Amino acid sequence: MKDVTAALLVIGDEILSGRTSDKNINYLANHCTAVGIRLEEVRVVSDKEDRIVDALNVLRSSYDYVFTTGGIGPTHDDITAQSVAKAVGVELLENRQAIAIMQARYPGEELSEGRRLMARIPDGGELIKNSVSGAPGFMIENVIVMAGVPKIMQVMLDDVTPKLRTGRRLLSRTFIIRHPESTVAPLIGKLDDENEGISLGSYPYFKLGKVGTVIVLRGVDEEQLDQVCLEFVAELKREEKDFEEDCDSTELKPLSFD
Amino acid sequence: MKDVTAALLVIGDEILSGRTSDKNINYLANHCTAVGIRLEEVRVVSDKEDRIVDALNVLRSSYDYVFTTGGIGPTHDDITAQSVAKAVGVELLENRQAIAIMQARYPGEELSEGRRLMARIPDGGELIKNSVSGAPGFMIENVIVMAGVPKIMQVMLDDVTPKLRTGRRLLSRTFIIRHPESTVAPLIGKLDDENEGISLGSYPYFKLGKVGTVIVLRGVDEEQLDQVCLEFVAELKREEKDFEEDCDSTELKPLSFD
């Protein structure tokens, strides 16, 4: 089974000015990990066409999929659809199916100019359903265009995911070590080196005045992962470390960094 | 006064896997806006040397400053310092001042191998103080290297900021419009077009079952900004829109998107 890779392009001045705190990166990252897509890069760019087109062209040729969030509303700074059309080299056209969706959503009212703009889709794009507010996202070639509002992004992601290829799921095992990171660094460096296909991540935490380290072992081969975990446990015991083993769980326990 | 630009490079597999939710992008974005540095791009890459070096080289030649967060701890996956040294083309050396800081921090204990690693700084780099946990960041050329743990990143940012050039502060005025975004889109598009130097951002919100729009006007020239705000208010009144004017505040009110 081949690995499937992706990048996320977050579009919006409001993220770069600090006005809005992005909520989509972490959501999409977790989603990708859960379904077996490896998120390899994220970029945040401003609402400028050349910035968006340049980033799209680099990312769509480097990864299997490029997700975008933001910039598909009805205002002058919503230029994602036109930028994607330009990058892909197709026309931006009023989409009949999108117009029908908008008309069904706003029955009786005439479609305003602003709302009509949201029905413009790059020629050949396939619509992504927005059950929150109507105006659809779209997928064209390997580019998946979604809204920036988290709730809308999330329903769009649910709608498009069944259409995507996925690879092997990355499995993980978590250990809590009640010692500073530097004291376990040599051991985990050694295990990481010696076991191709298994990566060890190390995350210090400070909690209730205590310093400790979360170690996460990750790999796609469950048998190998369990084997390396056993070896890790044996070494921790040999070094008389105070640790909490959590080998049965694929859920990661987020620990406070505060 | 010249504008000063920056990019942020977030380094870490844990952000891309979803294990850790980044807290530094928004903090740094707000900080930059407050001090007069324009954050123009953010990238998130994994703990791989070639990815870090490639991103650093593009960003440091494109912007006045590049901030990095993450990857300066004591473990095998902490490769930011060596990657920066490689990108800049200098050696990574044990820094005498950094060793002294670590020794003062851990008196009586011998400096462990792991902690010693954290004192390796690209040759010519200037240390950035870490009042939380000792191990310093550094600045070399226009690259500012900080920790990934938010509290540590924040004290490092405070330490390095007085050394940075800054430009004009971006001022902003916020309006809350109690109508869907599409109904104000034509007006704000027109104002944005007609006023070089002023940009209008439009952010839909859903709150207590109601749909509305936050409009933010931004610019560095206060007089011009106030003038465009007056024009905006006159137009909103002419169109009999229900809105809340907030012209006196440079604080942005975050509105819930939930």
Question: Which key phrases capture this entry?
Answer:
38% helix; 258 residues; homodimer; Molybdenum Cofactor Biosythetic Enzyme, Chain A; alpha/beta; 9 helices
Q: How would you describe the overall organization of this protein?
A:
- The structure is a homodimer of 258-residue chains.
- With 258 residues, chain A is α/β, with parallel strands linked by helices.
- Chain A folds into two domains: 5-163, Molybdenum Cofactor Biosythetic Enzyme, Chain A, CATH 3.40.980; 171-246, 2-Layer Sandwich (Alpha-Beta Plaits), CATH 3.30.70.
- In chain A, 38% of the residues lie in helices and 26% in strands.
- Chain A is built from nine helices and twelve strands.
- The first copy, chain A, has helices spanning 13-17, 24-35, 49-62, 80-88, 96-105, 113-117, 150-160, 181-194, 222-238, and strands at 5-11, 38-45, 65-69, 92-94, 120-122, 126-128, 137-140, 143-146, 171-177, 199-207, 210-219, 243-246.
- In chain A, strands 2-1-3-8-7-6 form a six-stranded mixed beta sheet, with helices on both faces. Chain A has a four-stranded antiparallel beta sheet with strand order 10-11-9-12.
- In chain A, a hairpin with an 8-residue loop joins strand 6 and strand 7.
- In chain A, helix 3 (49-62) crosses helix 4.
- Chain A is elongated, with a radius of gyration of 22 Å.
- The model of chain A is unreliable at 248-258 (pLDDT under 50).
- Strand 2 (38-45) of chain A pairs antiparallel with strand 2 of chain B, so a sheet runs across the interface.
